[in-house]
Amino acid sequence: QVQLVESGGGLVQVGGSLRLSCAASGLAPDYDAIGWYRSAPENERESISCISSSDPETWYADPVKGRFTTLKDNTKNTWYLQMNNLKPEDTAVYYCAAGKSFGSSCPVVESDDYWGQGTQVTVSS
Question: What's the rounded Cα separation, in Å, for the pair 98 and 90?
Fold first, then answer.
């Protein structure tokens, strides 16, 4: 059974930092990509970062480039999203999702089973 569990969200002031975690279990070895996404009220869900074993480059969306970093702890099968210099527009529910990379950095997510439950990040000004 596939399970992705996010944690680490919370309330932070502008300019602060948070580290989100995505702990994965039950993934087949060829599910080698993780993506981070966020969804804010009245906005479509957006991709913000992807990492995979088949692409040496980690991809970041322009709004977070230079402020967010995606890391992986291979010993724990856990991915992290380090978020620095947070802004009010970063307020959203953040999700991780897993899938096959097919040679890119971002996963092809097959079903709802491969999404985490989400964690709320609120940045106050």
Answer: 22
12 to 29, 40, 60, 89, 120: CA distances (angstroms): 36, 16, 22, 12, 11
HEC string of 57-91 equals EEEECCCCCCCEEEEEECCCCEEEEEECCCCHHHC
Nearest one of 30, 35, 24 to 74, comparing CA atoms: 24
Token readout for 68 is 């967010």
Q: Is 111 exposed, middle or buried (0-12, 13-18, 19+ CB in 10 A)?
A: exposed
- Quick count: other Cβ atoms within 10 Å of Cβ 83? 26
pLDDT tens-place string over residues 88-116: 999 999 999 999 998 888 999 999 999 99
